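I hope you will forgive my troubling you with a question about protein structure. Here, with my thanks, is the record as I have it:
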Amino acid sequence: MPQPTHTAALTLGRRATLTVTLALAGAAAAAAPADYETGSRAFVDEMAARHGFGRAELTALLDDARYQQAIIDAMDRPYEGKPWREYRQIFVTPERIDRGVAFLRANATLLRQAEAAYGVPPEVITAIIGIETNYGRNVGKHRVLDALTTLGFAYPRRADFFRGELEEFLLLARDEHVDARRVLGSYAGAVGKPQFIPSSYRAYAVDFDGDGRRDLWGSNADVIGSVGNYLAQHGWRRGEPIAAPAALPRGRPSGIDIGDKLPLLPETPLTQLTAAGVEPAEPLPDTASVALIGLDGDGPEYWLTLPNFYAITRYNHSNLYALAAYQLSREIAARAAGDQGED
């Protein structure tokens, strides 16, 4: 969706303090595969022809990039490869709940404004920021330039995707007057407190504080508004439920798909599942369309997921991620409400 024009959005040196040390920039790295340099040179040609980048300047920038074998290794062992019982323990923790309550309170006005604008509850926005960067405490340690060149030129399984993100990153840096050599992020090139990949940053980040910048490092307003906008643009439905635990009849219901880690579209009528003996543990609208997923918790664990759950999986294409965000949001909301009752 088209976004307003913003200038000087990521004033990293002043606003985000993303300093890359000489030790990081010059760290020894494994030798790049033979096709890394070939891919780099072809990319320069494409960017010059498609977007008018100067060849000499862009060649110098990419020559400064460093192949990082550690990034390849990290891509091959994602958190989402873990079973649900282990994944949940990483993100739904007492510490992250406590910090979520603190973030919710410190940003209550902004979160209410985002809910009014986008329909996403404060606790859901808070939980996503908590899972992504522990409320801004860990925005990433890798140079985004290194991450995206490594994956774009030396990770064949997803090279096309990451070359696209490198293209988006360089356009973002040019349009927003950012030094591409200095931006830090995740091993997959995601940036800021909400860990937007560059294409998402360009498409969905908003200037929620109205200062003329879209700053996903230094402005909690922009971070909160951007997460709300992202979910709204990916199908969030105001006021509707997210998911509910389910009990299955003895044996697997015939003719019913049960998903696991990969998201399923919520397109099965709830009435069809209840007629097959699936019982929601919480009330859901009879008219709801759902998906049924089964995960390996402390034994088989079944959930009915709805369109808002699927919207969360557009942030990270994993049922584990969406369920962790949902459960963390519930814990944060319950703790905040309980603490208010004690005051």
